[in-house]
Write a structure and sequence with these properties.
By secondary structure, the chain is an alpha/beta fold. The protein is about 40% helix and about 20% strand.
């Protein structure tokens, strides 16, 4: 198993290299189901329990709290956004922050965890939550102004990521936005080396990998934000890290615009 994990992580290094050199043909070839992948243990049973254990309060997990506020600010700052889909909404932390029952949004959410879907529908009566996988989203073409996938893509195996991004492209309006966040520099290789994977990540993302996956899927990066995983003095340490170029960033949020249909750019 460790040998398989090592091979899978080496492929991420190659993906980053091909993304940086804009070798799209070689990049896409590394997403074959025949190549090594970290075992994917993301199931309905796992997330039906895990979603209710995640704490994104400002006091206990300030980076996650900041991330949610940034996403909320981006959404509220775009007056064209009315129809929204939140993929992998989990504990409904973004929904709580935006107080969607009192908003003017047509809000939808999908998650593989049946318990989370049930609880969300009980709490938010003016929204629709459904148990669906991200690679088979039962909505019409060009329906949403905004699609969100916060801390979702790293749970999708490389061989399946473009099926998900194809669906995101299909349901997003031309000129609509896709907001995605992924972890960075999380030492996944060290966790796997000692036989643990705390929250079942199967990808090791970089800015270049994510940006290239989005480009190939018909999205152009509009803006991005890096975050640091400090627990004490979060704002001060993050500010100093940014201006002094010190430390490793631990999370990336990207807002991208739909520019093309997925099928039109497979010539890459």
């Amino acid at each position: 198993m460790q040998d398989l994990n090592n091979k899978a992580l080496k492929l991420e290094v190659l993906r980053d290299s091909y993304a940086r050199s804009r070798d799209f043909k070689s990049f896409i070839a590394l997403y074959s189901s025949k190549l090594p992948e970290i075992k994917n243990r993301n199931t309905n049973i796992y997330w039906s329990k895990k979603n209710f254990e995640i704490d994104t309060s400002k006091e206990k997990y300030p980076m996650a709290w900041n991330k949610l506020n940034i996403i909320a600010k981006w959404i509220k700052g775009n007056k064209k956004i009315k129809k929204i889909l939140n993929i992998g909404f989990g504990s409904c932390n973004l929904e709580k922050l935006l107080q969607i029952d009192q908003s003017n949004y047509e809000w939808h959410g999908i998650d593989i965890a049946k318990e989370s879907v049930s609880e969300a529908n009980k709490r938010f009566h003016n929204a629709t939550f459904t148990c669906l996988k991200s690679d088979n989203i039962h909505y019409s073409n060009n329906y949403f102004d905004c699609v969100i996938a916060s801390e979702v893509l790293e749970h999708i195996s490389p061989s399946g990521i473009f099926r998900t991004l194809r669906e995101v492209n299909r349901i997003t309006k031309k000129g609509g936005i896709f907001i995605a966040s992924v972890p960075l520099n999380e030492n996944l290789e060290n966790y796997l080396k000692i036989g643990i994977n705390p929250i079942n990540h199967v990808r090791k993302y970089t800015l270049e990998i994510l940006r290239t996956e989005l480009l190939i899927s018909g999205f152009k990066t509009n803006k991005k934000k890096y975050l640091y995983a400090y627990h004490n003095y979060y704002s001060l340490k993050s500010f100093l890290s940014k201006i002094l170029n010190y430390g490793h960033t631990n999370n990336l949020i990207i807002e991208s615009l739909k520019t093309n249909d997925f099928k039109k750019i497979q010539s890459y």
